[in-house]
Amino acid sequence: MENNNKIKKFIELTSLRFDQENSHKLLNELINEIKLHDKMYFNNDSPIISDGEYDELKKTLLDYTKRYPELSMSHSYIDNVGSYPSEKFAKVLHSVPMLSLSNIFKNSELVDFINRINKFLSLSSNSNIEFIAEPKIDGLSASLKYVDGELLVASTRGDGIQGENVTENILTLSGIPKSIKHSDFPSIFEVRGEVYMCRDDFFELNEKMILNGKQPYVNPRNTASGSLRQIDPEVTRSRNLHFFAYAWGEASDIPFNTHYEMIEAFKKWGFDINPYTKVCHSIEDLLGVYEDININRSNLNYDIDGVVYKVNSLLLQDRLGYIARAPRWAIAHKFPAEKAISKILDIEIQVGRTGSLTPVAKLEPVTIGGVVVRNATLHNEDFISGIASNGELLRNGIDIRVSDTVTVIRAGDVIPRILDVDIKLRNQNAKKFIFPIECPVCNSPAIREISSVNGKEGSIRRCTGGLLCQSQILSKLELFVSRNAFDIDGFGKKTMNIFFQEGFVKKPDDIFTLELRQKNNDINILSLEGWGELSLSNLFLSINEKRSISLERFIYSLGIRYVGENNAKIIASHYIDTNSFMKDMNRLGKADRVIFDDISDIDGIGAVVVESLKEFFEQESNLIIVTNLFQMLEIFKAQDIIGKESIIFGLRIVFTGTLKNMSRAEAKSKAESLGAKVLSTITSKVDILVSGDDSGSKKKKAIDLGIRVVNEDDWYNLISEKN
Hints:
The protein is an alpha+beta fold and 723 residues long. The strands form eight sheets. The protein has a five-stranded mixed sheet. It has a five-stranded antiparallel sheet with strand order 16-15-14-17-18. β25 (688-691), α27 (697-704) and β26 (708-711) form a beta-alpha-beta unit. The protein is globular, with a radius of gyration of 29 Å.
């Protein structure tokens, strides 16, 4: 009420005093008032006035500028009022995707990683590939694009395909030049690295927060992320962030032959690089660097969570290429997981989007690695009973009960889990946990399915309610708007849950009709607590920004069982265009055996996945939803621009026999990078069979079917044409 009266009084006073003579002074007062509330809303996430009061301030400002249009020429902030969300979250499409890294936790996994590289490159196991090792900075990835030596745009990693424009803020960081005059700096070059906050600065900031009666920040990484994504660059400047350069994206030229030489060039060009980056010539060298950094990391003034290993030769990096969302030539060796002791307060059952019943331990809050942990996954019924997925005993067969004292482990961003139970501290009245055989949400039977592969009972109990189960529907909707799917800002679990309960969103396509239904008074979102014109407008902006999406993300967003991010990408890459995908899914849903076999033949996709696709698309309700979404959205191929100039783009290729100059895996990767589809078996739909030495029955079958057969040399000549 106090703020309400203050705003009303402020508007009344400025209205009475506003005239040509003191217009500039009063306009500044009004703008400063709006700036204050913009800061509280967008920067601090803690508004002190309602949306309605904020709208009144904006309306007053607009009224004054209409009466005195010359004022808008001298006050640039007028054009910014109300546009912060779109400016703050302005999207930048990455010319070269910003991928993540695969993780390893054991020394033996490093051996496996190097063996995979040698096998892919057809090298002997004792070949000494040169690597570099560098600390894995626990911060926020950023990309800086320079054109003719001038910083053009800086962006966050975002979802890897597109990030947020943070150009003005990035220039407040140390270790980032605005312009580069060196003659060997490429005309177009994208420097990539990590934004981080030093521990000393983090502790000092938290002291100030506490003194001001505010909630302290959780850890330097989250603080760095929030600090970079500020409306006001001066707020970012005050946080004293830093940047380490360690990689690059789009480049008109690469002036050196090794990764380490490029890192050294970064230093010469004016960027900060991590001083602990080392060149290594053996597994022993790599593990030595890992141990040294792990031992000394407490002495560093910034957080790290592992060591990154990269193949040093840029030629080998190019040959190795990428798999899913990570490079084959690099991996992150994470530090050992951190542990803590806690007590189980309760065990709850959560029902996922595929109907799986997942037990979750509710814990006494405990801090692990700077993060407060209150929940830990218990995986499944067998895990609680002390039985592993292979049938062997876990924890010496000790089960898990409510009130148990347990060891909780958390590695990186992995969901916390229970490592062990202290049986000596078990309450004698603690009762064995009885896993439900009915869904706790819809009361449908929950069964353990029999595997079609080995005939054994699965470890996961699933609800059979399907679309009758509200939890499954809600979980699918939450996945649909999640970061790796449509990534709709402002549509978190809390909002989705409220909209679902109110009946505003019951199926995915409802999301894209919200604005029209609100306009037509079919629904009233403004009647909900906490919603005003501003927040509603921001939500609609976020939704409309996501009316364009790649096919692979779209497939993943549907929440089809067994179709995670990787399988969605493989399936999407199989199709030349989105219409072909939709046509095949229609036919698959009608049990078309030719399409079933065709998709099953995709390398990496088996019959189990295709059966799940069939089950999804044979349901008319699902088909209607997907058809509606295709009509509402622009769905594109993420790699549409890759390989389109290739002579083999869209062709179906099969490799057979032994190739002399590259491994089968490398040949497959190269073909896919040029837009071809690599299959594993010969059918009449295959366009080319690449026949190496010792070709077997595939070559004969291809000849019989009239399929074009080429040898290895012809293949290399073919892919060199117009590529």
